[in-house]
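Sequence, please.
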């Protein structure tokens, strides 16, 4: 199909052309504390059977330091929402068709309309998509500025998100180097293995190791890390002596751990060169972010930064020679292993050194889930999207992970979008709650309001299906039927075929979103509050 025959999305999908929300939302100012603002998001999947309208006008926002819960049945669009926000929708078959996703004021969907054109296939429900891969590549490059350090994600299926041929420490280390590389390189360059206070700290570690007291050993090793100004050395020292029957025989290993900080002039030049490249990459990310925020290309700035990076690489091209690069990176690789161990300790893995040196296929689903959580938290993101983060974990570990996420939120103000079908988890940790059904947000409110005064019949059905401690004899109920086929969704309200309170209007007109409380909105014809305007 030639490009001349192609059509923009508005012509192929009349409902997109008729909806002016996108233009209005793009110009609407964000509240000062809003980290993520999603408006009128539409994500479709182009299949042989027809176009699956997985998300059809989803709108919500997440504030700084807030945990927003997103709940609903399997197949209602929760994970598609997460993948749309992070631009990880598989293309083909999926495409983000419309809407805005604004992260700290930057529209992550800027220029998305230029990525493809559409042409209806006669006598079928199918659409032919012609993709413009140059535009797709340019837009994905811009997302480097927000992925990881800005927005991080815990995936629902950790095995599919891990590379089976690289060790766990390699994969966690890659995330550390990408998002906290400057801090890591500064730590190696500023370490003080020959400082006067190091020798007493070593002796204190030996004394604690001989007592066999794990807590005293941990404190002494932490003090050693402070003495050399690199905490990972304290972690390495702890695992050298933990459980050692004869600590004195391990002293040489401790000396080797400190000796790795005595960096040669060659390695120091390499570390400084890598730090310079990290700074240049940071400047490039700022340009990409400004492009999405201001809505215009910064070709001159971007080109100047890329030339600067190329100049640094060419001036030290010998570091890239075969055999030299691996040796040059040795101090970085050793440091990444122990920083990975520190992260794995934070997610309650009992044997973090063994896990760090192992491979994904050697771990259970729960262990892999914890590895994914450690990797997501390593960058200390501004927004953490957690897609069923505790599903594969034991009950005893679930609370530890939720507490870890809560601590990150309190310490640096991370906003959390928590996707789950476990309403018990939502009641425990979420500040606000969005209820999703068949690609639509049907109710939004504070967790207390939604749990104590559910408005939408779907929300009422979800709450009626879970047991309650205060009413153990109450009979549990289920919602009849299942989520509809989104190729041909029901007209009007998509929940009306399963709704016990459905009215004739529900089968014809999509209900508007109305305000029923200070922070409580619902999309249902049963309520007649003021209509919420998306501008």
């Amino acid at each position: 199909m030639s490009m001349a025959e192609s059509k923009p999305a508005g012509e192929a999908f009349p409902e997109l052309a008729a909806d002016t929300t996108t233009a209005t939302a793009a110009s609407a100012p964000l509240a000062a504390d809003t980290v993520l603002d999603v408006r009128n998001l539409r994500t479709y999947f182009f299949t042989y059977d027809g176009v699956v309208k997985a998300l059809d006008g989803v709108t919500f926002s997440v504030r700084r330091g807030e945990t927003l819960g997103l709940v609903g049945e399997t197949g209602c669009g929760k994970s598609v929402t997460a993948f749309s926000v992070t631009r990880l929708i598989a293309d083909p078959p999926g495409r983000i068709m419309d809407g805005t996703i604004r992260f700290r004021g930057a529209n992550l969907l800027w220029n998305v309309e230029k990525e493809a054109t559409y042409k209806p296939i006669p006598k079928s429900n199918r659409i032919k998509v012609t993709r413009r891969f140059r535009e797709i590549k340019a837009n994905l490059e811009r997302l480097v500025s927000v992925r990881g350090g800005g927005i991080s994600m815990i995936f629902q299926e950790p095995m599919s998100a891990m590379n089976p041929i690289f060790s766990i420490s390699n994969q966690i280390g890659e995330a550390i180097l990408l998002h906290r590389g400057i801090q890591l390189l500064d730590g190696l360059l500023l370490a003080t293995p020959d400082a006067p206070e190091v020798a007493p700290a070593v002796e204190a570690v030996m004394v604690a190791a001989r007592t066999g007291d794990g807590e005293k050993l941990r404190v002494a090793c932490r003090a050693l890390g402070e003495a050399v100004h690199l905490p990972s050395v304290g972690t390495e020292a702890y695992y050298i002596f933990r459980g050692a029957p004869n600590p004195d025989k391990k002293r040489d290993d401790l000396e080797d751990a400190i000796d790795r900080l005595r960096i040669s002039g060659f390695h120091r030049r390499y570390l400084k060169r890598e730090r310079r490249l990290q700074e240049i990459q940071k400047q490039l990310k700022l340009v990409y972010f400004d492009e999405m925020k201001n809505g215009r290309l910064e070709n001159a700035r971007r080109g100047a930064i890329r030339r600067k990076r190329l100049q640094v690489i060419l001036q030290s091209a010998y570091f890239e020679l075969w055999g030299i690069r691996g040796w040059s990176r040795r101090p970085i690789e050793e440091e990444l292993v122990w920083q990975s161990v520190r992260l794995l300790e934070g997610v309650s893995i009992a044997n973090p050194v063994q896990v760090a040196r192992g491979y994904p296929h050697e771990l259970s689903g729960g262990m892999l889930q914890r590895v994914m959580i450690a990797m997501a938290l390593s960058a200390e993101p501004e927004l953490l999207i957690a897609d069923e983060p505790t599903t594969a974990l034991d009950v005893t570990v679930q609370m530890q992970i939720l507490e870890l996420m809560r601590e990150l939120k309190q310490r640096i103000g991370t906003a959390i979008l928590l996707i789950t079908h476990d309403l018990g988890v939502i009641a425990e940790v979420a500040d606000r709650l969005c209820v999703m059904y068949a690609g639509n947000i049907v109710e939004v409110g504070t967790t207390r309001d939604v749990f104590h005064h559910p408005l939408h019949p779907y929300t009422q059905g979800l709450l009626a299906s879970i047991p309650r401690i205060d009413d153990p004899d109450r009979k549990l109920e289920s919602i009849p039927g299942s989520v509809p086929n989104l190729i041909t969704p029901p007209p009007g309200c998509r929940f009306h075929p399963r709704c016990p309170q459905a009215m004739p209007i529900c089968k014809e007109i999509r209900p508007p979103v109305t305000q029923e409380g200070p922070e409580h909105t619902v999309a249902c014809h049963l309520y007649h509050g003021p209509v919420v305007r998306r501008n």
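The radius of gyration is 27 Å.
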